[in-house]
Amino acid sequence: MKIKLHLLCIPLVFLMIFTGQIAYYAIILSSLLWHEAGHLLTAMLCGVKVKSCVITPYGGEIEFENPAVVPATSLLWIALGGPIATILGIGLAFLMPELLATKLINVQLVLLAINVLPIIPLDGGRVFLACLFLFNPSVRAFEYYYWFSLLIAFILFMVSLCYLPQSIFLAILCLFIWLQVFKEWNYRKYRLAFEKYVMNRLT
User: What's the helix, strand, coil split of the chain in %, to 5?
Assistant: First the structure.
């Protein structure tokens, strides 16, 4: 399994250095790695082989060795693995020195709040997709969901722009999420065809 750092993380490091917040970024990066470890551990427990993991500013993107054979229940648990790890991390932070604990808890709470949003490619979106597989396996439902994700991500980005310059980090993050959603939406026909194949296999 290959673990990579997304290219967008590099300018964020320089931004943190320029603003004198490199220690704060170290807390963010460690929180992201902890969050992603939750996904990877859950995948291992579910018997799902992971091909690669890319660490992004909001979490990570996991690519499976053979996604066509991953059951919907495993997809659901793997998606939940990150948020569960983050919640455990918040609990462990209370055992640390107060100064470090406060910053770590704040970062973990922001990470959790972002990731539970029900849009692709966030964990909340992955959970919602897995539930669609289980309870409403309709190709049309998936297409509507991609449109919904694209709209919500755009609204979040526009809202973040209203609070510049204080929200510069959040704005960059929202823009990145919107671009990821747009990439997913742009390839929705291929993805929907794949999901239709998976749904036929599951039924």
Answer: 70, 10, 20
Q: HSE-up of 83 (CA within 13 Å, CB side)?
A: 18
Kindly report, residue by residue over 154-186, the tens digit of the pLDDT.
888 888 888 887 777 778 778 888 888 887 777
Chain-centroid distance of CA 109 in Å reads 14
Amino acid identity, residue 79?
Answer: A
pLDDT of residue 203: 46
CA dihedral 149, 154, 155, 160 (to 10 degrees): 130
Torsion 67-70-72-74 (CA) sign: negative
Q: Round to whole Å and give the CA distance between 188 and 63.
A: 17
Instruction: Name residue 95's amino acid.
Output: L
Which letter does DSSP use for residue 65 in this model? S
Please count the other Cβ atoms lying within 10 Å of the Cβ belonging to residue 81.
24
Q: Which residues contact 163 (CB under 8 A, 6 or more apart)?
A: 170
82-93 pLDDT, tens digit per residue, is: 999 999 999 998
What does the block give as tokens for 135? 């309870």
Strands (DSSP E) found in the chain: 2-5, 50-56, 59-64
